[in-house]
Write a structure and sequence with these properties.
By secondary structure, the chain is an alpha+beta fold. The protein is 47% helix and 12% strand. The strands form three sheets. Strands 3-5-4 form a three-stranded antiparallel sheet.
């Protein structure tokens, strides 16, 4: 149980390994802002906390390969857990070619991932009926028993502050040092907010248009001669990311 708590805390950026001593842990500033007794959401009741956890798992995915793979590489309109096992195994083997991968472990990981967004329709223990943290996001649905589909489109509970936070985090890895990013990259690239949050094109555009007011011009949307881009001012975005998290709880 302790190992499980540690794993999910690290995967969701509630904890991070200490740079001075890798055997010890620290609480990142954003996690303090959210979960402190006097923080933004100490009991994880606000939808922004669930969206933040989803972004850490599926957008960054440093410790959650299955989550990142599912939301970035699966394009089938509907799928079953069994249909995902072989392609996930191929993906995992490319990441760790010298490591043995257990099919049963893959199957359990997929089941855990799917059930964290789409709880069982019926049967099982009382825990099967409990709404998981990520279930409220409406990203995945069980259309028939054992068959799943993504729910693409606008996400009303996703605050623009959390979307902008995810965009800046994505920018740091996908376009570090660049002052602009194309609309198509934001909407469709692997690890992008559009893909990870399963937003449709119009929803992404609406959120990008709102960026300038949200960030006091730090991020700005332009659409000139059919060239749609977001521009970012120079400087470290770390403080802006923290500020956008605060805005997500307004």
């Amino acid at each position: 149980m302790v190992s499980s708590i540690r794993h999910w805390a690290l995967a969701c950026d509630v904890l991070c390994e200490s740079e001075a001593d890798p055997s010890s842990f620290e609480v990142p500033e954003i996690a303090v802002d959210i979960f402190h007794d006097d923080g933004l959401d100490p009991y994880a009741e606000n939808p922004s906390t669930a969206w933040y956890a989803h972004w850490c798992l599926a957008g960054q995915g440093a410790r959650s390969t299955t989550w990142r793979w599912l939301f970035n590489h699966v394009t089938m309109p509907t799928f079953t857990r069994q249909e995902l096992e072989a392609p996930l195994e191929d993906f995992a083997r490319k990441l760790t070619p010298n490591k043995r991968i257990s099919p049963s472990t893959l199957a359990r990981d997929l089941e855990t991932c799917l059930r964290s967004y789409a709880p069982r329709l019926a049967g099982g223990s009382p825990e099967d009926f409990a709404e998981p943290l990520l279930g409220e996001l409406g990203l995945l649905q069980e259309v028939h028993k054992g068959q799943y589909a993504f729910r693409r489109g606008p996400k009303t509970s996703l605050h623009n502050g959390l979307f902008a936070y995810a965009l800046l985090t994505f920018w740091e890895t996908a376009a570090e040092g660049l002052s602009s990013m194309a609309f198509e990259t934001i909407a469709y690239a692997e690890g992008s907010p559009g893909r990870v949050f399963k937003l449709d094109e119009d929803s992404v555009a609406e959120r990008l248009i709102a960026l300038s007011d949200l960030t006091d011009g730090y991020l700005a949307w332009t659409d000139t001669a059919g060239l749609r881009q977001v521009h970012k001012q120079s400087g470290d975005s770390a403080e802006w990311r923290r500020e956008l998290i605060r805005k997500a709880y307004d």
